[in-house]
Records
---
Amino acid sequence: MTTLLIVLPLAAALVIWVLPLNDVSAGALALLAALAEVGVWIQLVARYDFGQGGLQFAQQRNWFSDQHVSYHVGVYGFSVWLIGLTVVAMAAAIAYGFWAGRDHLRAYLGLMLFLTGAVVGVFTAQDLLLFYAFFEAMMIPLYVLVGVWGGPGRMAATLKFVLFTMAGSLLMLAAIVVYGLSQNTFDIVQIGQSSSDWIFLGFVAAFAIKAPLFPLHGWLPDAYREASPEVAAILSGVVSKAAAYGFLRIAITKFPEPAQHYRAPILALAAIGLIYGSLLAFRAPDVRGVIAYSSLAQMGLITMGIFSVNDLGLDGSVLQMVNHGLISTTLFLLAGMVERRALTGELTRLGGMARGRPALAIVLLTTGVIALAVPLSSAFAGEFLILAGVFRHGWGWSVVGAVAMVLAAAYVLRLVSAILHRDVGPAVSDAALDLRPAELGVVVPLLACLLALSAWPAAITQHSFRGDHAQADVAQGFK
Amino acid sequence: MIPRPHIDWFALAPVNSLLAASALALLCSVLAPRRSRKAVTATLCALGYATAFGFAVALYVRSAHGHGVVVDAFRRDRLAELTGIIVAGSGLLATGLSYRERWREDHIGEYYALLAAAGGGMLFFVGANNLMTLFLGLEWFSICLYILCAIDRDRLSGLEAALKYLVIGGFGSAVLLFGAALVYGATGAIDFPGIAAAGHEHDALLVFGLAMIIAGLAFKASAAPFHMWTPDVYEGAPTPLTAFMAAATKTVALVVTLRLLITAFPGDAYVWTRALAVIAVCSLVIGNLAALVQKGVKRMLAYSSVSHAGFMLIAVASNSSLGARALLYYLVPYAAMSLGSFGVVAARERELGVPVTFENMAGFGWERPLLGISMWTFMLGFAGFPLTGGFVGKFYVFAAAYRHGWTWLVIVGVLATLVSLYYYLGVVRALYMRPGENLGAAVVAGGSPAREPLLHAAVGVALTVSVGSLFAVEPLITLARHAAASLPF
């Protein structure tokens, strides 16, 4: 079943690339595959035994035995939710890309499906080398997706993106080689804990760049601005979660001593990123800039939750990963829809779009309200848990987080009002229609997921770790 | 009367089948009518390589216990046969790539005859078990390659390449020969086990000879700082031949380096492991930095081959069975990707009729999807993305370095990989991310591109091998382990 989740999108990608389909049938096939993937995931949720927890649906096959490397995949409680985020967000992105009619649609959708398979692979891999392979495999489609279908500055953006992330990944490769060979296995389940600072930092470098964590976010604004909206949505919503997952599954689990040792600096960087990202989001001149920098802030918050290493913080960060993934995907897709109508994302040239466009107004406002973590929303639950968790390591961290929540309210409201309210902007013409049914079909399911989570955040927080004791589960290495 | 030694003809069958193919092709280049000359000689060459491939496989299966044949001048063991399989496969693909090359065809028969003869020399070279056969094999295939570079007399760049290759290659051979003489002087033996048995540690003469032999072999493997000829020759030679040189010459030079150092100089390991590590670092640094600034794709690939020589020398330098496995595994995807990428360059070259640069690759990926995807895969594979066996090869090289206690070499390798991304992804960028119509340079010579089923097939095979080697690591490593077992670690 786990393998099916990985292979289904990859196989669909190959079929779409190889068969000489026209755009409509290729798009329909891609969408069908993405929805089938969601279906498989629903099966996974239904069959996963949350009472028992731990690694389930594990499959293992030898890859090369002399170095004890194998194809070993399986899912934990928290990976179930991250996979769910991936398949849902990817389905929405593929649907939107199909509807928006990108050039070379077959290549485009094939790459999106390939990316789906790679991300699911990251969330399920139980072998370090396999994990690395999937982690890198995410880069391949992303590089092309940003570089070919991006905006005018895409060349510089892709180059920066690739060099940043590859620098991190290659450090991780060196860390993996040293770690795996010194422990004589590459199996993540079996491999023992290590107290080596250098190996820990190798992993952290890769994840901190991918997330990104302040001050390694240099690639972020360009990549998020130049990518097409659905690719930016996936980058910030889904791909960044691979980094958070790495922190959770490898960094704090396998390196408890170094993680404790470096907790203060990492929390500090995350806190700086949180405040700095929020401030930049407040000052950003365009829609994408706001979402991009808010993403930096949110990843800082999630990292804080993970490195608090206690029940509250870990539960909160898993919930917040899913929340932020859904929110960010929805917002980027909405940004794409706004840009499609106004041909610009500059906030000064937008405005007054609520008038006569009720669907857009309702969807954007609802997403915005969830994003600013209004009480009773799922984001509130996640952020509150993280702040409560990090409070155990000093009240100062929680104060920083609380300030950031206020800033979040400020930048989200600024974004919403700049698009929807105030006077009609020069770029907004009367001819710009309300959201089309197809667009609603893309964003409403995402919003529905968010509302469902708001109603029942415990779906994730109580079903992520064995026996609902996150700290104990991490301490035992998820065994 | 000199007693005639026992000769194991089966062990020599791969070499002889290529020699026979070469001789027949030479005959046909005179006897066959001009119209069918190319088809006949190319078929003979391909048949020779296919037969050699078959014999090498059979010999691999039946040579579980390696032993010397022909008075111990030649080894029949799995190391030689596995290398033979790679070389014969490369030769077969190179024949396919050559078939539709646009060049002056009045010596086409000789081209295929020499191509087959070069392969024979390489197979002989990898089996060498004493310094005499080693030198003979080296000169045998080198002379063939010198002529092949210059076979198209209308191309000035080809003539220049051949001359450069001849002079510098000749110099390299001379250095190697001199080193061999010094080693003989120090030990009184020319066979590898004999040298190992007679070698005295800290013998200055022996170490000096060893250094010169390493330099001579490094010329052939185009490892820095002995790589000066590589970019010019790779650029000037006919592209299918460049593909063959990049894949096969490097393969045999590295495998022979491995065999020679392990069997003949185990006592001086403390010298040559360090020396090779230094050469490897030089190759990584020089190859990668120089590749960054190249405009021509062939020159870039030439420097990239220098840097890959560096990676593979790390494996040799680690002086272990793991290192030997790493080298032999690495060679499989590396040879396939080299052949494939030069094949794609050849296709573009034939379309445009001018040397291929990053500029005029623009838009190629959209125009010829199969070749574009292949080139994309080869470039990402060279860069070590987990899309081809290049990734696993690098992993094994790093593992070998780490096991030898050289974590710093792992770091150097990782940094080199990072730098290499820039130019490998530069090709991808040119292929897909620049619309071709913006660049006046890339005007296709006219009409739709020629149908080149053989070239497509060869690139397809290279693609299959390089991607397949990612999934079939276990069988390939098992083959490599058996081959490495024929060396005395």
---
Amino acid sequence: MTVTSVHKDPEALTMTVHASFGAPIERVWQLWDDPRQLERWWGPPVYPATVAHHELRAGGTMSYFMTGPQGDQPHGWWRVLEVDAPKRLVFLNGFGDANGEPDPAMPTMTFRVELSAGTDGATSMTVEIEFPSLEAMTQVMSMGMEEGFTLAMSQIDAMLEEGATH
Amino acid sequence: MAGVSLSTSLHWFAHDRRPDPSTHYVEHLLTQAKDQGRSVTADGHFTCNVNPNSLTYNHMVVDIRETNGADQVFHALADGTRRDIVRRTLECEHSVSALADLYPMSFAAVQKHVAVLERAQLVSKRPHGREQLVRANVHTIREAFELLERLEALWRGRIDRMDEILQHDQEKGGTP
């Protein structure tokens, strides 16, 4: 059973996502490590991601863009701080300008990804996203809407309902 | 591995009353109020049994996503006493002095907390005799939650897509 919980803490400026997958830890790590797999889940269906550069080592960078329904292409980047395959990945995630260069006017978030192998061949994953400020948290969330990240509220309710029946 | 079961923790909003994880907290309170025979006015406020003559005031509904009010809202909610004031005044109107009796702080200190909430449009005040009655603005609270839910929705979508990729492996009979 996949159990996901999301914990939002505006005081600590973090959002923490817990998930469990029915696949070995090495397999789940590939979702982050393989750019072709990463681009299949990073962007929402209406904003598919294209990973242009992907270097998953400490000090390495990743750059990507997403393509929206109107042809708009928001850019983003990672700067990798720590890698301990297949267990831990820490990186900064920011937004890029039209040329894909890091945009200093936009907020940068810190991502901490932890994977751990369960006894039954399952893998649990924790992603902690830390915002530098409340303003940044709000800015990112309002940008998220512009980039088509919004799921309809009814979809969320349906998912929550589904969760309640398990 | 079909389907993802989900639970949401909104503990920061109400430490002492964990919301039912399957419902939105505001919806939960609205239902609770109706069950307890309190009436909900057209603009989403509760009138309390203790004050049946309470008038309904029209409040401008502000979409905080379209203003710079979101920061103000989260700042206002990032304090335990203020969250408690919101929770209590969401259930029913309280006078400032009634609120002041609830906390180990001065009337002036509680009044300041109410003022912070009022600036963020999380509560509104209305005169009632010599008193000021405070009530929560359901609309603003709902907006604040929707803002946080957007980020959550992004990640729920990502987890779903990760799970789909992994399931696709199994259908093909092995990992690549």
---
Amino acid sequence: MAAQVGPRLTRRALLAVALLGPPLAACAPAGPTQAQAPDPLIALADAARADAALAAAVIAATPDLAVRVAPLRDARTEHAAALDSEVARQARRSATPAPPRAATGAATLDALRRSVAAAGESARQAALDSDARRVGLVASVAACCTTYAAQLG
Amino acid sequence: MTQTPTSTIDGRTTQALQATLGAEHAALWCYSLAVAFLVEPQQSQARRDADVHRELRGRIEQSLTQLGQRPVSAQPAYATPQPVTDPASAARLAVVAETDCQTSWRALLEQTTDRGLREAGLKALTDATGRGARWRAVVGATPVVPVFPGRP
């Protein structure tokens, strides 16, 4: 991920601002044509639940890691709840939180780091295309996950 | 299409970009004050973090200029929430600076659909979260990584 969004890309991205074309509103991806596509935040919420379960399994396997991993477990639990609420708001129905899952695969710190890094990148990608109302939430999830991944590295 | 390139970015976006520039100005001022009170290794960390903010500030100013906007200037001084008198209060000021930057970058993301700005804003928000987490660890704030960085 670091290689993908290094300072060079950011500089280009910012400098490209003035070079871009006309307003994108007319071709924004959130139009009715995509109404049938599943809400991308559902996958982000599922990933958050999976991370929370994996973090809990890591703590169960290695209690000494609780101090480092419990805040991540709690953060990912909060992410799942917030993302569920946003999915429900958009679908105009009440949130029906999915049941927590059992972790699959090896409950190691390295597996957790890889999982949360992937979640951060997924959220970053989703934030690029999110509408104004939800981009803040998705961006915060991305920033939190990426920072945890760096801390566990 | 015959619209000028600057039409991609509307007034709300440039306003938000000016706000992030204001936050970056403030962060630089905060670090210049904090460095005077911090001790190693935090002092070197503060200098490195200030360097990043300085570069970011330059890029925002350049972008605003390209958009035909006059970048806002730094204030001569800023009010700190608490007096800075020692290493601990200096580190707390760094936390405040990074938190304010996170808020302004997230706000910018909410004011633009421009892909380049979204990319840059996401990177800036994430980097500020990482720096902020280091300072939060120094001052003993929990959780070290905020659950929703930049949420006002």
